[in-house]
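Allow me, if you will, to draw on your knowledge of protein folds for a short while. I have a record of one protein: its chain in single-letter code and its fold written as discrete structure tokens. Kindly check, if you would, that the fold set down in the tokens agrees with what the sequence suggests. Thank you for your consideration; the sequence and its tokens are set out here:
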Amino acid sequence: MKRAMLSFLSLVGTCPVAQAQDLALETGIRFSLKRPSSLSLLAYAPQAYRVSPPRMEAANPVNADDRDQDIQIRFHKSTQRFLRTGAAMPLDPHMLSRSRMTRYVMEDRWLIGDQVTATMGWHGIKISNRNANVTVGPGRDRLRTRDWFLPHANLVLQTGQALRLSLDYAEKLRAYSETGISGPMGLDHDTYLQLRRTLKPETQSRVQMQADWTPAPALNLSLAVHGGRLDDQLRFTGRGILPVNSGSARIEGAILAVHHQATPQWQWSVRYSGARVRVSGGAMAHEHSLSVGTTWQSGPWRAALALVRNSAPALPVHDQRAMRIEAGVDYALAEIGGRPLTMSLHMSDPDRLMSGAFARDDLSGSLRASDQARAVMASARLGW
């Protein structure tokens, strides 16, 4: 299914005599091949009020239908351009900064037995920045990184209705992706070339075992234990918008989470994580985090609030606040021209812990200075 995202356009002030416009374009496609079979042994009735961790959806066994194998191919491309409106020829392609991300996913899921589902596949990504510094001037210099083979595998054992066990392995990559969106970086051409030679992408390899227990339809308990490496973690220090390689570490940790759907409209959750971080060339450190969150949804309205208390990061950062607050409000308008429209207002406060970045289950992607800054964002999303 092909979808496009329409984001609000913002004017970014770069200097007293020039402004710039950030244009974001996204395209994607998903293709699925299904092999018929008479197997339907993993059938179970949906639970009306069950609240599951977000990652469970990606690893769910194949529900009752007419297939025992599902091959999926997904492709996604996004482009952000920085237009210097003060230039004499603003549409000259050599005067445009551009950040482009291309990503694909190939995945095969099949039933091994009555209660066992296996998933194997890989994804690839390429991130390319042209004129990644608006003060460098016109040219064809690029900041680029790519890895076309990042494997992942997952094995799920569904023991009855209440307990599910899973084991998975995954690799991913995150790379710097900023093209003047935050304004001039103040680099001359030689310094920019030095950044291009020395900047490395952040890479991760992780093994995780997880148990999910549903003692009641509205209650879910989850325990995950994981370990692996996080290499060349990218950070932005202070108000800087240039990435810094903060180092590598081996991480072992655990996450305990409780999700409860109190009413059809209201749910709450508690999550505790602890990790042992062995920094390369440094000492052992410990990180832990405790969060309490709640979500309310009624009709077109949805609101969420999360309070998080963190320990000190294993690697020193400029902002080491112990308490974080995240919140958001979404309102789904009636369809316009047959297409749904959603208005959103979100307040973000990113996690500074190394173990927090390690525990995320998202795919490989880009990293920008704005991703690690406290922010309030208003947006409109139109479905096509």
In short: The chain has a mean pLDDT of 78. The helical segments are 54-59, 189-198, 354-359. Residues 268 and 368 are 31 Å apart (CA to CA).
